[in-house]
Amino acid sequence: MKVLKHKLERTYSFEYKHTAVIQTEGHEEDVTEEELACMTAWKCGYPPPGYDQYGSRVKELGEGVYQIEWYSGTSAD
After folding, report:
1. Which of 17, 28, 13 is nearest to 69 (CA)?
2. Which domain, by its residues, includes 51?
3. Is residue 33 exposed (0-12), middle (13-18) or buried (19+ Cβ within 10 Å)?
4. pLDDT tens digit string along 36-67?
5. Measured between alpha carbons, how far is 68 from 77 in angstroms, rounded to an integer?
């Protein structure tokens, strides 16, 4: 998987909204949307075990190209 674009917006003092566009490489075909969103968060530097992850949405933009949106905390503390 390759992250093509990652945008970060602060929504509240303790929360970020992430929007990422990714290109899959074929071996991600058997993963769920939730797993794909989790993998994207890791690739973008916001691992769910530290930052939390909720409100994930996955939208297919083209063959193998997806837009992933999710919310996370602003700190891993």
Report:
1. 17
2. 2-73
3. middle
4. 999 999 999 999 999 999 999 999 999 899 99
5. 24
